[in-house]
C-alpha cells in the first residue's frame, strides 16, 4: 500500500498510511482508503485524513518498502537442500 507524504506550508511533512487515493472536498484535501476491488473514491470509501488545501504545498506518493525479508528457516528448506534416503 502506498504512503502519501504531505508537505505543508510550514515545511512539516505528514505521512499518511492506509490511504490509496485522495481528492479535494471543498476547502479540504482528503485521503481515502478504498475497497480493494474498486479504483474510485465513492460512498464506500473510508476517510483517513484531511488537510486544509491552502496549507498543502506538495503531495507525494511513495510505495511502501517491503517488510524485512523472511528468514528461510521460517519457510523451511527448499527442494534443493532436502536429502533423500
Query: What proportion strand?
Result: 35-45%
On the 0-100 scale, what is the average pLDDT?
A: 81
Query: What is the count of distinct domains?
Result: 1
What is the string of SSEs from the N terminus onward? EEEEEEH
Count of alpha and pi helical runs: 1
Q: Structural class given helices, strands, pairing?
A: mainly beta
Strands, total number: 6
Secondary structure: elements and pairs:
Layout: E1 2-8, E2 13-17, E3 21-25, E4 28-33, E5 46-52, E6 56-63, H1 72-75
Antiparallel strand pairs: 1-2, 1-6, 3-4, 4-5
Structure description:
Residues 68-85 have low confidence and may be disordered. A hairpin with a 4-residue loop joins strand 1 (2-8) and strand 2 (13-17). The longest helix has 4 residues, at 72-75. This protein has one domain. The protein is built from 1 helix and 6 strands. The chain is mainly beta. It is flat and about 35 Å long. The strands form 2 sheets. The chain has a 3-stranded antiparallel β-sheet with strand order 2-1-6, with no helix packed on it. A 3-stranded antiparallel β-sheet has the order 3-4-5, with no helix packed on it.
